C-alpha cells in the first residue's frame, strides 16, 4: 500500500486524488482547511479520509502540496519538518523560482521535487476535479539535481501514472517561459472580459456572445482570483516584460488600423499564424 | 426545387452549401474564382455545379454572397444587377455598415437582406467546411426595414434550417458590438501569438504549448489574414476604441504587478469573472 497525502484538495489536488484513488494499492489522505471542500472531497470519494497536516505527513510515502502558490512556501517547510526520511514531497505550483528559493536550505531539501503539471481548466475547487485532466499533458520538474534520485524517480512515475511525461527546466527558465505561455494568456483573457463588460454595460446590449470565437479567447477570464492573483504576483517581473512586448504589438495593430494600412495588418497576422508550428503536437 | 447560388465557397459558404445539399429539394450552384477551391467544392460534393456569376445569379431563388468583406460591396452590386425580381440576396459578411451603405441606393436594395451568422472556426477554405457549424448559433440581420418582408422571411427560414435564430441590429450597433466580442478577440489572439513567437525565438525554448490554457487563448491567431485584414480594416474606428479600452486595462494589470498590489490584481480578476454571466446560454 502506498500512502499519499494531498494538501489542498482543489482542481489539481482533487484531480490527482481521483487518479490515485483509481489505482489498485493507494490510500489517499486529504489535508484541507475549507470545511465545505472537506465535505465535497469525502462525498465525491476523492480521498479516503481528511486529516490534520502533521498526522497526514508523518505516515505518508508521498506528499503532494497543491495549495495556492502564496501558501506553498510555508506549507512545504512545515511538511519537510515532519516527513519520514524516505518520503517524497512534491509541489504542483504554477510558479517555481520563489518556492525553490524558500526551501533551498531546508535539511530535507533532497526529498523535495519541484513540479508543475501543465494542466488545468478555468474551474476550481474539489467539485471541478476530473479524471484524465493530466492525460497526454506535460509535467515540468525544476532543480532535479537538488533532489535525491529516488525522489525524482517517484515524482516521474507518479505523473507517468496520470499519462504525463516529465521535462526538466531551471526554475528561472520555467517562470520566464510560463509568463508568456500561461500567465500572459490569463491576463489577455481577463482584460478581454473587463473590456467587453464595460461596453456591454454602456450599450445595454444583451447578446449571447458564446456564438463567437470570443468564448474561447475569454475562457480563462473565469479563472479563480484566489489562485491567479498570487501566481501573477510571484512572477511579476517576467510577466511585466511579456506585457510590454504584448502592448507593443497592440500598438502596431492600432497604428495599422488608424492609417488603414491593410498590408501591415495582413503582415502582422501572417507572422502570428506561425504559432501553428509551435502548437503542433510534438 | 429551390435554386441557391453561393458566391465564395470557403469555410462559411462551403458549410452553408453542405447544409443545403443535405436538404431534400435544393440545388446548389457555386461561384468561385479560385480553381483549386472549385475542385475541392466539386469533389467534396459541396455544390452541384460551378458556374459564372451572371449565369448563377439569373436563375437563382436565393443568392448568398460569402466572399471576403472587401469584395462583398462590388459583388453585391453585380448580383443585384442580374437577379430575377423575386430572388432574395443575402450576404454573410462580418462587418455590415460599409456594405449596407454601398448598396443603399441600388434599385433592387429591397431584395437584399444583410446578414451575419455568428459562427466560424480558425480554419478556412472549402476543405474547412463542416456540417453543424451553425447549429444553435445566432444570426444577425441588419436594416430589416429596408428589405421586402418576404425576403427577410426567406433569410430567417434559411438560417433556421441550419439551426440558427435571427436577431435584429442596426449596422452601426452590429459593427460596434462585434468590434468588442469578435474583432478584439482576434487581435488579442494574434498579438499573443506574436509575443510568444518572439520569446520562443529568443529562448530557443521548444515546448509543446498546447498543454496550457494558451492553446485556447491563441486559437484565433491561426485565422486567415486574407479574411481578417479586410474585416479589421472595415471596422477600424470601432476596433480602435475597443483597443484603447483594452490597453488601458492592461496598464492597470501592469501597475498592480509592478507595485506588488495583489489586492488590485484580485479585484481586476474578480470583476472580469462577471463575464461568466454574459456567457451563460440564453
Quick recap:
Two copies of one chain form a homodimer. With 282 residues, chain A is α/β, with parallel strands linked by helices.
Describe this structure in words.
2 copies of one chain form a homodimer. The first copy, chain A, is an alpha/beta fold and 282 residues long. Chain A has 12 helices and 8 strands. In chain A, strands 3-2-1-4-5-6-7-8 form an 8-stranded mixed β-sheet, sandwiched between helices. The two termini of chain A are 35 Å apart. In chain A, 55% of the residues are buried. Chains A and B meet through helix 7, helix 8, helix 9, helix 10 and helix 11 of A and helix 7, helix 8, helix 9, helix 10 and helix 11 of B.
Topology:
The structure is a homodimer of 282-residue chains.
Chain A: E1 2-7, H1 11-21, E2 26-31, H2 35-43, E3 49-50, H3 53-58, E4 62-65, H4 69-82, E5 88-91, H5 97-102, E6 112-117, E7 138-142, H6 149-161, E8 165-169, H7 171-203, H8 214-217, H9 225-234, H10 236-258, H11 262-272, H12 275-279
Parallel strand pairs in A: 1-2, 1-4, 2-3, 4-5, 5-6, 7-8
Antiparallel strand pairs in A: 6-7
Helix pairs in contact in A: 7-10, 10-11
Amino acid at each position: 500500500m502506498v500512502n499519499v497525502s494531498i494538501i489542498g484538495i482543489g482542481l489539481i489536488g482533487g484531480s490527482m486524488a481521483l487518479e490515485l484513488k483509481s489505482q489498485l494499492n493507494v490510500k489517499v489522505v486529504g489535508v484541507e482547511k475549507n470545511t465545505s471542500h472537506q465535505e465535497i472531497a469525502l462525498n465525491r470519494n476523492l480521498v479516503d479520509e481528511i486529516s490534520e497536516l502533521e498526522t497526514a505527513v508523518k505516515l505518508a510515502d508521498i506528499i503532494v502540496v497543491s495549495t495556492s502558490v502564496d501558501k506553498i512556501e510555508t506549507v512545504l517547510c512545515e511538511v519537510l519538518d515532519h516527513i519520514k526520511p524516505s518520503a517524497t514531497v512534491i509541489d504542483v505550483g504554477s510558479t517555481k523560482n520563489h518556492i525553490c528559493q524558500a526551501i533551498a536550505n531546508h535539511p530535507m531539501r533532497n526529498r523535495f521535487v519541484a513540479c508543475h503539471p501543465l494542466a488545468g481548466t478555468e474551474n476550481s475547487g474539489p467539485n471541478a476535479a476530473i479524471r484524465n485532466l493530466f492525460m497526454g499533458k506535460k509535467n515540468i520538474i525544476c532543480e532535479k539535481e537538488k533532489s535525491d534520485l529516488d525522489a525524482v524517480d517517484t515524482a516521474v512515475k507518479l505523473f507517468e501514472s496520470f499519462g504525463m511525461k516529465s521535462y526538466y527546466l531551471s526554475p528561472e527558465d520555467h517562470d520566464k517561459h510560463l509568463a508568456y505561455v500561461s500567465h500572459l494568456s490569463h491576463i489577455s483573457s481577463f482584460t478581454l472580459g473587463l473590456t467587453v463588460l464595460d461596453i456591454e454595460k454602456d450599450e445595454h446590449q444583451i447578446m449571447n456572445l458564446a456564438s463567437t470565437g470570443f468564448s474561447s479567447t475569454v475562457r480563462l477570464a473565469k479563472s479563480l482570483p484566489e489562485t491567479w492573483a498570487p501566481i501573477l504576483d510571484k512572477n511579476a517581473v517576467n510577466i511585466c516584460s511579456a506585457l510590454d512586448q504584448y502592448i507593443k504589438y497592440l500598438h502596431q495593430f492600432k497604428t495599422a488600423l488608424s492609417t488603414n494600412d491593410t498590408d501591415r495588418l495582413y503582415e502582422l497576422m501572417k507572422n502570428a499564424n506561425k504559432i501553428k508550428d509551435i502548437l503542433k503536437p510534438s
